[in-house]
Model the fold of this input.
Amino acid sequence: MINILNVDHSGKIYFSVNENIKNITFKVWDRKYNSEVYIKHYEQLLGGIIYYVSISCVVLPFLKDTYVEVTHNDTVYVREIKFPEGDLKNFSLIGNSCLVWRTYEKFNSQYNSPTIGNLILDDEEYVRFCEHIDSYLNAEMIFGESKGNINFKNNCGNVMVINPNANIPSDYPISHHLDVEIHWIHTKSRELIFNNGVYNFREIDDRISLDEYKSKWERRVQRAKDKEKIFLWSSSELFNIHGNWKRKQLIDRFKKIPHRSIFLTERPEEEFEDDYHIIKYIPEWKDYNQFQRDSSGGTLWNNQGDNSEIMYNIIQDKFLK
Done:
């Protein structure tokens, strides 16, 4: 009755039916969870038409034993499916924020990067990290207090991210890698829960240990070392407010990194592209500026879901073809 035509890494399941049918319920299950991952009811499906449903990229990495269940006239049809990983062609994505994490989700790909779930709150440090990536990946990871973080403090009055609305604790760990300071704002493991096709994450009470942070960092560093790098950055994720001269210096350095790099900007005059680098102007950002910030120092107009989609498309079009 139902033909599963394709399942892709973005979470889309394409299907068709052999003939016109009415009152069909389409469900996606994963055997790890005790509730439906996705539910959609169709009043009618037409034969010869290709349909698709889309599973959120946020949950795709958790779905390992998945099947489709279609109910029609009290008859249940089951089809096994598997969401493939996206092909990053031996690249490692590096960033200063969770934008890298969200971009990996778009590819449904293993985290071949240590910069997952952490922040580099000094823009100068991030550019230096990119310029000398091998040295920093080889450096010892040492936990300790912030060493000042003056640029971030000048913006928001704190050396650390403090945002009760985002459930960021005031005592999250900070690791030091030579002269670069990395802030680990996600201090608890999360459990994925589904309820009638709707997902949410519940934090597990126990804090992640420093040994676990270090283990994750070292494991992902090893995956990244033998891969080509793509550095991701966005003007919406500049953690410090810069004058025009300083901003130009940082962006000029970023687009000269001896690796691939992508920068998203609200300023059309900054657009640039060569074989390895791209500075992409986002027209929807034209009237935004760096002073539109929340109490944590982040820009109010930053949207990592939308930005990761832009990054995904640029990587696909520029580096994976």
Summary: The chain has two domains: 2-81, 91-319. The longest helix spans residues 210-225. The two ends are 36 Å apart (CA to CA). The chain has a mean pLDDT of 95.
